[in-house]
Amino acid sequence: MLTVSTVNVNGLRAAAKKGYVEWLAATEADVVCLQEVRAEPEQLSGELRAPAGWHVVASPSELKGRAGVALLSRVEPTAVRVGFGVAEFDRAGRYVEVELPGLVVGSLYLPSGDVGTERQEEKERFMAAFLPYLVELRAKAAADDREVLICGDWNIAHREVDLKNWRANQKQAGFLPEERAWLSRVYDEAGYVDVMRALHPEGPGPYSWWSYRGRAFDNDTGWRIDLACATPGLAERAVSAVVERAASHDQRWSDHAPVTVVFES
Questions:
Q1: Active site residue 192
Q2: Segments forming the whole domain that contains residue 147
Q3: What confidence tens digit (pLDDT) does each residue in 134-163 have?
Q4: Which terminus of the chain is more exposed, N or C, with fewer CB under 10 A?
Q5: Which amino acids does the record list as binding Mg(2+) (predicted)?
Q6: Does the annotation count 158 as an active-site position?
Q7: For the sheet containing 2-8, what is the strand order?
């Protein structure tokens, strides 16, 4: 079996004080994808920078305290790629990938956006550049007899069943018609499969992010924006996909919860 987890840690140093270290020690995952690390490697303690039993690849943002992605694997990668060949984003801590036997895994932190601001324009530029890369990556991997799995915080809820209050969010970043259409192109044109939705087609949710404001977590007023998107051959081998939702609000170590998928080898 191959088990892969992805989670936006909302600041790795903060998460470490709330339970991330214990979660990592207990996980049965073979690969862990992290987003919003928000730290340079030298700012991290040894157990965070190089946890025992893991090979770690990190891509911090050149903007201090922002973004940052990392990828932990129990097997040493045969190759590593930071970014996807677009100068604006290659040092922005948005994407890192590794090659493992028969598999390419990417950790993605897609910009969150904010309607009417430069942040939304940045998100749109990222999406425009990333889709062709996904097409290229799938073709190259197929030529090398590899599958592809892109995990991370995609910052887009695809359908109404992917967020609790969809009616109130139709003009908000993360649920804009053009963002949802772009994610449809990831599935329909680039040919990737949303593993969670393939295994759980009906919804609602399961949600993976809840605001810290109000009682969003207690009321399960969430968004499903943390996705594991696989090439069809790998997706067909998926046997389980779960959100590791904390038992209670005070046991959360991020505003996101890990999404864990299991594939038959």
A1: no
A2: 2-263
A3: 999 999 999 999 999 999 999 999 999 999
A4: C
A5: 8, 36, 153, 155, 255-256
A6: no
A7: 55-59, 69-73, 31-35, 2-8, 259-263, 238-243
